[in-house]
Amino acid sequence: MGMRRLVGVLPPGTLAVGAGLGVLGLASYVHLAVAGHTLDAAGMSSVSVLWSLVFIVGLGLFFPIEQEVARIVSARRVHGQPAWPVLRRGAVLAATILVALFAVLLAGSGPIADRLFAGDRSLVWVFAAAMVGLALGYVTRGVLGGLGDFGWYGVQLGVDGGLRIVMAGALGVLGIRSSLWFGLVLVFAPIASVLLTAGPVLRARGAGPEIGWAELCRGLGLLVVSALLAQVVVNIAVINVRLLDPEDVAVAGALLSALVLVRVPLFVFGSLQASLLPGLSGAVAAADAAGYRRLLGRALAVVTALGGAGAAVAVPLGPWLVRLLFDASDVLGVADFAWLAAGTCAYLWAMVLGQGVLAQGRHRDQALAWVIGTAALVAATLCPGDVAQRVELGYAAGSLVVAVVLLRGVRAWTPVRVASLERVA
User: How far apart are CA 355 and CA 420, in angstroms?
Assistant: First the structure.
């Protein structure tokens, strides 16, 4: 597929968001590479667990708010209604979730620190602060996405990534060997990026009809279940290694480095996802079955090509690259990268098909698919054998099961059925 043809099949806004995600993706590599070359094995293991926990919980809790805010703002924009009432509701909802999360962390900080961070409670509070940054980012990007302002959406991502690169580089130059400071990069950069790009969001102010809590929250619980379990499937491997074999700190750090490498295609999907859901939702609202299936098919073709290209590089070169780029221990081989690459490709299919089901308003079907996939992950992880191989198999099996279940849901869709829905199925 040539570059011009590839660009032509992507939804509007994909390239703008992709540019920002490209910088953010590069920042991930720089951050972890500097940490890997600076910290000892125990410190890198703690940073790896923190990294995984931030994205499991942060994306699981707050990305659904972005999706619902974007969906509602997009629908209101069609009728000339302002986004500000939606932003207010989304912000209050995110703040409520943060308060509940902080209460849990306050009550359980000791056991959490002992089990995940070798007793370092400061990393528990770094995690809490990182949740604030993610909450701010997802709520404001929901407004930008709903307004179709993907340029500023990409700028916010790019500023976040650029700051992470600068901060991680400074830590490396200064020779700081503290997992706390490398964790704080996940706090300061997202918050600063929101503040530096607040102008376009604030310009969305305007009087208009309020939205009820029911409109924002009716499918949010199921969406949070789906998002949390999706992040569990893609990120839990590192935490499982720490839980199953706490003494083997080398594998946890190496596995995170490997996952960051094989999941390069997920950054590209992130740029596609920001504009895919509004496009699919528009086709569903117009009962345009042909347009819906065409957009979904193009998205599947793009991610399949990306997954295959990523695997072609990561599988043969992965063991060498993680040692070169991240100073990871030599504990993973070609077979490990093959399982991780297969899991990533299946995960991409699951994410695209999930957008297709979500556009139909079938939040329950999407959540059920992730519940079934997570059960498959748990079953594979509990099989006897090498710990690394078990968590890798769990990632691949869980992702594939989700994709198969969602494919059945997408194929069963008809425009008549969707047009008649007045509530979340």
Answer: 19
pTM metric for this prediction = 0.76
Q: Is 385 exposed, middle or buried (CB count within 10 Å of its CB: 0-12, 13-18, 19+)? A: exposed
**C-alpha distance across the termini of the chain, in Å:** 37
Distance CA 229, CA 54 (A): 14
Of 274, 226, 363, residue with least CA distance to 67: 274
Q: What are the distances in angstroms from CA 278 to CA 258, 312, 348?
A: 32, 32, 18
Q: How far apart are CA 33 and CA 24, in angstroms?
A: 14
Cβ contacts of 187 within 8 Å, gap of 6 or more = 126, 129, 130, 132, 133
Q: How many CB atoms lie within 10 A of CB 405?
A: 21
CB 341 within 8 A of CB 310: yes
What tokens appear for 123 in the block? Answer: 């990393």
Give every CB contact of residue 192 below 8 A, 6+ residues apart in sequence. Answer: 159, 160, 163
| DSSP assigned state of 204 | T
Residue 258, burial from CB neighbour count under 10 angstroms (0-12, 13-18, 19+)? buried
- pLDDT tens figures, 166-219: 999 999 999 999 999 999 999 999 999 999 999 888 887 766 667 777 777 777
In angstroms, rounded to a whole number, what is the distance separating the alpha carbons of residues 384 and 390?
Answer: 8
DSSP labels for 384-396? SS-HHHHHHHHHH
DSSP 109-173: HHHHHHHHSTT-THHHHHHHHHHHHHHHHHHHHHHHHHTT-HHHHHHHHHHHHHHHHHHHHHHHH
**In the chain, where are the structural domains located?**
13-217, 238-425
